[in-house]
Specification:
The chain is mainly β. It has helices at residues 2-19, 318-322, 366-375, and strands spanning 22-23, 28-30, 34-36, 39-42, 48-53, 62-67, 70-77, 89-93, 99-103, 108-111, 122-126, 132-136, 144-145, 153-154, 160-163, 169-170, 172-177, 180-190, 198-202, 205-209, 229-235, 239-246, 253-258, 264-269, 276-282, 297-299, 307-309, 313-315, 330-332, 342-348, 350-351, 358-361, 379-383, 394-398, 404-406, 415-421, 434-436. It has a 6-stranded antiparallel sheet with strand order 32-34-33-36-30-37, covered by helices on one side. The chain has a 5-stranded mixed sheet with strand order 1-4-5-6-7, with helices on one face. It has a 4-stranded antiparallel sheet with strand order 2-11-12-13, with no helix packed on it. The protein binds 2-acetamido-2-deoxy-beta-D-glucopyranose (NAG) (5 copies). One of its GO terms (biological process) is recognition of pollen.
Length: 437
């Protein structure tokens, strides 16, 4: 009883320490105005709040943003890698049009770093979307916006992106620890490929990937109920972007966040002021672990053991495979013949293998794609790059298949054609959802 009480007290204290701040009843501060570390900005419809905070036991001060009525989760931090280490912090919109964070002795600890000098008064405004923007009166474009600098959380309409010309990337980076928002080891980004996929990295190692975008969704991300969000991945010819729209009827808010334990979580707030719930957390099962079944293995949750060699392939090391060590993977039982002796094994409902050595040609159809693959000895598989309108475009794989998994869901239309020596196609030694072509 006493314990419950003290816990309750603790929680009310935590929220009180944020709520007791004197909110300046405004969403905007203008040039030469400032916000001290007990004041906060609140967006017009009171969705988001911006102010200084110190996470957990940390004595450092950070400028952060949270949903106003659910202040427990900070969704964005300005100076995550530049904390204010003394007791006092201040946000100022400077005369040259930047917004800067100052410590007690008025030293600049962090700056929005815009180089162009503003021609008219500049305003810093917190929008109801959770975008913190610097703007002036002369231009429709923002001089700076927090949506361009994601931290660990993707808000609706905020983008993860990769620009192939400039190399500029926007991606999520975990906090280092619960009381330290500095950039941690886990990142969630668009991979630099013609067919984008989202990849969760721990350091430089891939931990999970969504599978390539097939025009409708990421081929390995079937878990999201469409009632929660609508995902988008688009290219303007230079930049690939991923973002989502949320369904406002079902939830008050939903975000994607990358945790310190290197998982990607979809969080939802049922109602304004309720607690965050985890809708899913990935990787959550073996088939989501990158390359779980080794080269040319296929992961199937419905089977025990979950890893099997693809048809036409055998374990590289029988001994390891029998001990359920999959990392050594599988090799072809019969080498490809070329000279007209090869055929395709059609696998339906799979997360396409990782794009390591590959070619994409968006103007080829499936027949041209298969013919191209058959005519090149090094080509090992092919598929449509876009499944809309009956399928179009061509992806060719060269080399081993990494991170291939099968789905149980019947609605996954993505299929892949694996090249095998024709003598392998008669041997139907396991029951895969497959047809021979
Ligand atoms: C911060 O601003 C509030 C409201 O303007 C004021 O009451 C308070 O004294 C200020 N705090 C400090 C430390 O300057
Ligand atoms: C403010 O920051 C500057 C530069 O980092 C530092 O030299 C100074 O000691 C800090 N002031 C206080 C009061 O901590
Ligand atoms: C702003 O620019 C300075 C000097 O180039 C750099 O040291 C600092 O890290 C930059 N700050 C941010 C937030 O990018
Ligand atoms: C893509 O395929 C078409 C049709 O076969 C061909 O004309 C074109 O040259 C190919 N593009 C590239 C970049 O290979
Ligand atoms: C097969 O395709 C690869 C990758 O495009 C290419 O480098 C190679 O020259 C091709 N081989 C033949 C025989 O066309």
């Amino acid at each position: 009883m006493e314990r419950t009480f003290s816990l309750a007290l603790l929680f009310s204290f935590i929220s009180a320490s944020i709520f007791l701040k004197s909110a300046i009843a405004a969403d905007t501060i203008a040039s030469k105005q400032s916000l001290n570390d007990t004041e906060t900005l609140i967006s017009a419809n009171e969705v988001f709040e911006l102010g200084f905070f110190s996470p957990g036991n940390s004595k450092n001060k950070y400028l952060g943003m949270w949903y106003k009525r659910t202040p427990g989760k900070v969704v964005w931090v300005a100076n995550r890698d530049n904390p204010i280490t003394n007791t006092y912090g201040e946000l100022v919109v400077s005369e040259n049009g930047n917004f800067v964070l100052l410590n007690q002795s008025k030293s600049t600890i962090w700056s929005s770093n815009i180089s162009s000098v503003a021609k008219s008064p500049v305003f810093l405004q917190l929008l109801d979307s959770g975008n913190l923007v610097l703007r002036d009166d002369t231009s429709l474009n923002y001089l700076w916006q927090s949506f361009d600098y994601p931290c660990d959380t993707l808000l609706p309409d905020m983008k993860i992106s990769w620009d192939k010309d400039s190399g500029r990337e926007r991606y999520l980076t975990s906090w280092t620890a619960p009381d330290d928002p500095s950039s941690g080891d886990s990142t969630y980004k668009i991979e630099h490929k013609e067919l984008p996929q989202l990849v969760l990295f721990l350091g430089s190692a891939k931990r999970y990937r969504t599978g390539a975008w097939d025009g409708v969704r990421f081929t390995g991300l079937t878990a999201i109920p469409n009632s929660v969000i609508r995902p988008f991945a688009e290219s303007d010819g230079h930049e690939w972007s991923y973002w989502f729209e949320q369904n406002k009827d079902e939830f008050f808010a939903t975000v994607i966040t990358v945790t310190q334990s290197s998982s990607v979580q979809r969080l939802v707030l049922k109602d304004e002021g309720s607690e965050w719930n985890v809708l899913y957390s990935i990787p959550n099962q073996p088939c989501n672990n990158y390359g779980n079944c080794g080269a040319n293995g296929i992961c199937r949750l419905s089977k025990i053991p979950t890893c099997e060699c693809l048809q036409g392939f055998v374990p590289k090391s029988d001994k390891e495979w029998k001990a359920f060590t999959w990392t050594s993977g599988c090799v072809r039982r019969t080498l490809l013949e070329c000279r007209g002796g090869d055929r395709f094994l059609h696998l339906l409902g799979v997360k396409l293998p990782d794009l390591l050595e590959f070619l994409v040609n968006k103007s080829m159809n499936l027949e041209e794609c298969k013919a191209k693959c058959l005519s090149n000895y090094s080509c090992t598989a092919c598929a449509n790059s876009d499944i809309r309108n009956g399928g179009s475009g061509c992806v060719l794989w060269f080399g081993d298949f990494i991170d291939l998994r099968e789905f149980i869901q019947e609605d996954n239309e993505q299929s892949i054609y694996i090249k095998l020596a024709s003598s392998e196609l008669g041997k139907d030694f396991f029951h895969l959802k497959s047809t021979l072509r």
